[in-house]
Specification:
Number of domains: 2
Radius of gyration: 29 Å
Order of helices and strands: HHHEHHHHHEEEHHEEEEEEEEEH
Organism: Paenibacillus roseus
Number of strands: 13
Largest sheet: 6 strands, mixed
Protein name: DUF5808 domain-containing protein
Strand order of the largest sheet: 8-12-13-11-10-9
Structural class: alpha+beta
Helix content: 40-55%
Keywords: Membrane, Transmembrane, Transmembrane helix
């Protein structure tokens, strides 16, 4: 087996097969070298955990996409040589290109309920702009782009059919496939652009000037993605049209390779088995030709995307919006920080001190990296505690009735000034 294509032993001596192997090896080496160079920013972003994690996720996805794309190309080149030379292994059968057209005909456009995702994101941005007037332009841009994306997706369902061939099955199949690809393209565009508008909003609201370059790089990079997505989809459609029309009405000889569309995933609607042995590696893979297989294969994707975006957002937010401690005229101490804000009165303080060390413990609900600790923790010897600290002393330790609060600023001198202010208030009460 070569690139997940079954071949007879003598085929391995074919010069064209050897050429595919050599090209794959050279391309793989180039990919590894480029990705090794692209990994350098992960090290350079050591002091910016949020950006480091986000960049690492992008790096992992890019590496997988590059290797998968080249493996898939090698699979197709090998499969074409196999058919050209009649190198079949095991049961050999004839299929007609009409079967491919029938498969394409069953493709469906993106369901309209999917657009509830970008619409919900738009509603969230609009509600955000109600409290933050400076974000009005962001919410308007998000609303307009979402509607502009939804209308073509609706129009695709009534789009005039294009005539490709005298074969009606081929015409129906290619038109249906075209509608499917373009409708999903508009869904992806709407979602990505809402993410872009969200990042622009966060950038506008950020008071930090230290990360302007990184913010602009992320925003501009994400702005390029839709253009690349459009190019990819239309190239995919053109390739599909060319491949289908070339095979129109011709017999195709095949074995089980036909069910492994890219060499790694199995798709056979006629096979009711949900799990099948992998062609490459060990273990089982799912049959995406079954409904259960589709859910198993694609169901976790939105969850993973949501987790990646959520974690990245929280970490980046912690970088640009550190906790802020203020004292109100009523002597209330308020610590403002997204999701973990807390306030108490000076009279609730039982003890206040400046310490150089925080007891070890575990996070129960919050954020913890080697640079910061924010949220709810359970500390040894002290018990429940709320942490709002950079992991560099000194720390303000405040003992309340049933818990502790730890707070500091990034600048040690500023931490000392805040401590002196709180200590003075504490003595007065």
């Amino acid at each position: 087996m070569l690139f997940a294509v079954t071949l007879p032993p003598h085929a391995m001596d074919n010069e064209k097969i050897k050429d595919v192997q050599v090209k794959f090896g050279k391309r793989l080496k180039r990919i590894i070298l480029w990705m090794a160079a692209a990994f350098i920013p992960v090290v350079l972003l050591y002091d910016a955990n949020g950006y480091q994690v986000l960049y690492f996720f992008v790096w992992i996805f890019s590496f997988y996409a590059a290797v998968f794309s080249w493996f898939r190309q090698a699979f197709r080149m090998t499969l074409a040589l196999k058919r050209e030379n009649d190198w079949f292994v095991g049961a050999k059968r004839v299929i007609q290109s009409d079967l491919r057209a029938a498969y394409l005909k069953n493709q469906r456009s993106a369901p309209l309920w999917l657009f509830a995702i970008p619409l919900a994101m738009t509603v969230g941005l609009v509600l955000w702009s109600v409290n933050e007037p400076t974000l009005l332009g962001v919410s308007i841009g998000s609303s307009v782009f979402t509607l502009v994306s939804l209308l073509p997706a609706l129009g695709m369902r009534k789009m005039k059919a294009k005539v490709y061939s005298s074969n009606s099955e081929v015409n129906v199949g290619l038109n249906q496939a075209r509608r499917r690809y373009i409708s999903y393209l508009w869904f992806m565009m709407a979602t990505l652009e809402n993410v872009l508008f969200l990042l622009i909003g966060l950038f506008i609201m950020s008071d930090s000037d230290t990360a302007v370059g990184i913010w602009l790089t992320i925003i501009l990079s994400l702005g390029v993605v839709p253009a690349a997505l459009v190019l990819y989809v239309y190239r995919k459609i053109a390739h599909l049209e060319q491949e289908t029309l070339e095979l129109d009405g011709k017999p195709i000889y095949t074995d089980d390779d036909e069910y492994w569309s890219n060499g790694l995933t199995y798709h056979n609607p006629d096979d009711k088995a949900i799990f099948v042995p992998k062609r490459v590696g060990i273990g089982e893979t799912v049959n995406t030709g079954t409904l259960a297989g589709k859910w198993i294969a694609w169901g976790p994707v939105p969850l993973v995307v949501a987790i990646v975006i959520g974690v990245s957002f929280l970490l980046i937010n912690s970088e640009i919006n550190p906790p802020v401690l203020t004292v109100t005229p009523e002597h209330n101490i308020e610590i403002d920080y997204p999701m973990y804000s807390f306030d108490f009165n000076v009279t609730d303080i039982e003890q206040i001190s400046l310490v150089d060390k925080v007891p070890s413990g575990v996070k129960t609900n919050g954020e913890g990296t080697d640079k910061i600790a924010r949220g709810h923790f359970k500390l040894k010897e002290l018990g429940k505690a709320r942490m709002y600290i950079f992991k560099s002393p000194p720390y303000i330790q405040i003992k309340l009735k049933d818990s502790y609060v730890f707070y500091n600023e990034k600048d040690p001198e500023q931490t000392k000034r805040v401590f002196e202010q709180l200590q003075e208030l504490y003595k007065l009460n």
